[in-house]
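Issue 218. Parser rejects a valid record. Input:
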Amino acid sequence: MNPDTHALAGAYAVNAVTDEERRSFEIHLDLCEDCRAEVAELQAAAAAMAIDVELPPPPPLRASVLSAISQTRQLSPITSVEQVPAESIESLETAPVTDSAPLTVSAAPASAPVDELAARRRRFRVQPWLAAAAAAAVFAVGGAVWQPWNDDAPRLTATEQVLSASDAQRVEQPMGTSEITIVRSPSHKKAVFLADAMPEAPFGKAYQLWFDVPGQGMVSAGLIRGSGAVTIPMQGDATIATGAGITLEPASGSEHPTTAPVALFSFA
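Output the parser choked on:
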């Protein structure tokens, strides 16, 4: 199981996974007690945040709305002068607006805006899907904040960036029983050495990587530590090299190759 499968717990809890990821993660859930517990906690937090939350209006709102209503004409729009007698319009425009004698035409419609505001306040609630997403995006566990979609989430390493680069160039060849490969990305100016079964260097020796740089010859690109399956970022600017090689050197490495190369690569 890919270790990254564990990181799908938050996305799975808020239904933010593909069908393929869902099937794979549900198989993983049957085997992983920690992920089952984490998913349960995330779903519980999402459910808690999805409870309706009504926001009360500020105290001055009612007074300001009623004040605006009492000073606003409550007639329907007039499409022709003949619809309303001229004397009615004149009396309506000249009549003073006071607390003791409010306009009768505004009495019935006045409650409508207030009712509408109340209805809007009732509708202003946290939607369940939004609460669930918030619960998964920011979930505290043991004092740490887990934020899978945050910009601070783990990024690809330099090695992973080279291996996944769109301009990655691969050159490979056998070395004994191992298949060795160099992946070079001009956009990242880096190269990575890979082997599926790198042989162990003799005692006191180490395999050393080299870049073949025009005008400079073979320039050290680092030592190969370990054996078996290895992945090693090569040191130096890979874009100026026309090739690479491997030699067997003292364990501490050499400034220049001291033995014949055991493998050579061309980037041409």
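Fixed in the parser; the record now loads. Residues 158-266 form one domain.
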